[in-house]
Amino acid sequence: MYVGQLSGKEIDFVARRGDEVIYVQVAVQISSEETYEREFGNLKLIKDNYPKYVVTMDPNVGLIHDSGIVACSARQFLLDFI
Questions:
Q1: CB within 8 A of 59, min separation 6: which ones?
Q2: What is the pLDDT at residue 59?
Q3: Is the dihedral of CA 66, 71, 77, 82 positive or negative?
Q4: Residue 17 belongs to what H/E stretch?
Q5: What pLDDT score was predicted for residue 30?
Q6: What is the pLDDT of residue 43?
Q7: Is there a contact between 40 and 46 (Cβ–Cβ < 8 Å)?
Q8: Which of 52, 56, 28 is nearest to 41 (CA)?
Q9: Would you kindly state where each structural domain of the chain is located, as residue ranges?
Q10: What parts of the chain have a pLDDT lower than 50?
Q11: Could you tell me the CA-to-CA distances from 68 to 5, 18, 22, 63, 78 in Å, in that order?
């Protein structure tokens, strides 16, 4: 696991296991358009087909899908996607 860089943008976590890769952005909340664009925008720059997630501490976020990127609460991420 490491912090990724792409075009001067930071990807919070890049996890590799063998041939598997996942990208994870972390935000306390996704309540503003600025936060949404920052977290999703960095992941949208990645042009491969590995899973991409935005994880938030907001338990009421539900599931958001945008360009193949899944946003969910930290609890849901740990229970369902890992």
A1: 73, 75
A2: 76
A3: positive
A4: strand 9-17
A5: 85
A6: 92
A7: no
A8: 52
A9: 2-81
A10: none
A11: 20, 22, 12, 12, 19
